[in-house]
Design goal:
Layout lengths: L1 H10 L1 H18 L7 E2 L11 H9 L7 E11 L6 H15 L4 E9 L5 E9 L7 H10 L8 E6 L1 H35 L4 H23 L6 E2 H31 L4 H28 L7 H32 L17 H10 L3 H16 L7 E2 L11 H12 L8 E6 L8 H13 L3 E5 L3 E2 L2 E2 L2 H10 L4 H6 L9 E8 L7 H5 L1 H15 L3 E5 L1 H35 L4 H27 L5 E2 L2 H28 L5 H33 L3 H33 L14
Parallel strand pairs: 1-6, 7-14
Antiparallel strand pairs: 2-4, 2-5, 3-4, 8-12, 8-13, 9-12, 10-11
Amino acid sequence: MFNKIARFSVRFRWPIIIVWILAVPILSSTLPKLSDVSKNDNSQFLPKNSQTQKALDLETSFQSKDTSDQEILVAVRSNGPLTSSDDAAINQVIVRVKKVDGVSQVRAVGTSKDGQAQEFLVGISSKAFGPDAINLVSDIRAQTKTNVPGLQVHLTGQLAQAADSQNANNKGKNNTEIYNVIFIIVLLLLVFRAALAPLVTLLPAGLALIIAQPLIAESTKIGVQVSFITEILLIVLLLGAGTDYGLFLVFRTREELRNGLQPKAAVVKALTRVGESITFSAATVAAALMCLLLASFGVYKGLGPALAIGLGVTLLAALTFLPALLAVLGRAVFWPAKTKGVKNKIGIWGRVADQVIKRPVVTLVVGVSLLLILSLGIVGYKTAGFSNQSAPASSDSALGQQALAQHFPAANDNPQYLLMTFSQPVWNNLEALYQAQNQLSSSPTFKAISGPFSINGTNFTPAQLQALHQAGGNSPINQALSQFISADGKTVRFYSVANTAASGSTTAANFTPQVQAALDKAAANAGAKEARIYGQDAAGYDISHIANNDLKRIIPIVLFIIGIILALLLRSLVAPWYLIASVALSYLASLGFAMFVFVHLQGGDGLNFILPFLMFIFLMALGQDYNILVMSRIREEAHNYKTLREAVTKAIGITGTTVTSAGLVLAGTFTVFGIAGGDKQFQEIGFSIAFGILLDTFFVRTLLVPSMVVILGRWNWWPSKLSARD
């Protein structure tokens, strides 16, 4: 089959090249952009039956029919109380904001107790809340400028923070893409010592990345969810893995040219030989990624098919566009290096393999011991980072949060919402609600509580609150009261700050059960029919449990599928076992290394919750890429040599440069991701996975696997015919 694909790609090389190039402008202009459909809020990826989503259903009671979101507008003077000039300027801002297309309402919450700040809720229209909502944030901010010295107006809230975070993320994503391309080209120049070879190897991967993005964006119409981590990992995976596939084919083409074949024939033979390895490598990763569809957490569920689509495009480019390009350029790809009259040398890796197989048992014991020592870092394993990626400290939304924390009750600063629903309007029994708020306030579980009986620092009795409600009107107090009691009077919201670590930390997230218990007790005494928590820490608690359960459930399935693929490729029921075990041990060692560096040494709150999952998928699946290349070449050479030792030496000697170059490319792309991502969580993910890939490339693949092959001998290939040979 691969011989036919190779001949087709070489024969129709010009039409294939033209089709690939034309696909870029056509798809980019007709399909949506990936960044337009990406989500930044982790809680948006929770399943419908999660506690956070159920709480969100109650929270909608505080939204009007034409409002899907409420942002916070805070006007503040840092050097004293607001002046009459400030009030006039603020009123002008509010008038302008109300006129912004997409704003459904602007409602005053009140003035701070120190008189230095005013707070407003800005309703976002249901029609405007969507892909264009980020642009709406810019439109609103354009209307908040004032000419009054010392007066500042900030827009903050979930959407505003997402906009600021996305702007920072886009910068990190662009840096990752640019620096990865530069890194790969420089590395390939050193590897090939040729002018065109690096560009030819990288071009199919870059083309696949550009084409895959609008295709993945289009797939969101059938339910694929895309997060920012998907966007940036797509760059890393396609540039890294795509360049690896290019290396497999370009190195083999150079080998066949040195063996005396003409360029077109060399391309055909090269693809015939390595096409199966490339395809099975991509299939292994894609199969592992598609297993993520079984996850409950939407980030994982969307990550799998999105990256699998990108990988499919990359494989297609490697099997068609790259051979066509090599056929057109011929020997010029490797200029000024010679490809005529040059013998293929065994090289340093062949000599290493020769030494390894002389003492395979010692090598295996020492290697496994070192991996087990690294794995000890897992002791005390814990995860963190469940909250959304925060906006930069200098951003408008962050400054708005600082103003809220300084001038309004503590519970307004990133609070947990405690929600109670009742069968009848609470106006019929305010005394019970009053007792519930007092019970929450006196509970050691909470540091601060704000509710309908304590508005902006002013306390009310049930009788006073009833009088305010009966008087009606649009007074600032009544407007502020509407954030605590819904329009139908059946849902009550309290702002709370738990008596634990800072919001957003793992400790705060793990404190959620205690918060829920205190809320349930107060709600039961008040006669509420339902009580839920809505907020960053409650969502973090949900994400933690759902994500960890996904990891436990999906790992065995991925291992099973990879085992089947390896068994089919190698025609063996023995080799897949130790190949999977070698990568699994490498995974545990890499996870232990990450824990040792980022938690034990740096004192981190825990590993980013998504790291163990990503590390498993990438090391387990991508690690098998090199297993597949090495083992398929050992199998190929085993047919040509009398002893398996000779076959191992020749195979490792020939593929060693390919594997190490591919490993350096892939590890380098993750390192660049860690440096250029612009965020601590990206550093943790990038550096940890890069370490795992290097460990797998230079240690597991070149030392442990050859030693296992030699120890098992012909049993590597059982039950195929090759196992009958000595």
